[in-house]
Write a structure and sequence with these properties.
By secondary structure, this protein is an all-alpha fold. It contains 1 helix and no strands.
Length: about 40
């Protein structure tokens, strides 16, 4: 039971990390796009 919980926790952390990096790259791309438009 505890092993299953640890396994699920690891998956959750990996999912959050992937979501975070994806959101960061999207925000970065949007910022670059806005800067290019302003110029």
């Amino acid at each position: 039971m505890s092993w299953k919980w640890i396994e699920g926790k690891g998956d959750w952390v990996i999912d959050m990390t992937l979501l975070g990096s994806g959101a960061l790259s999207i925000a970065f791309a949007v910022t670059i796009g806005l800067l290019a438009l302003v110029r």
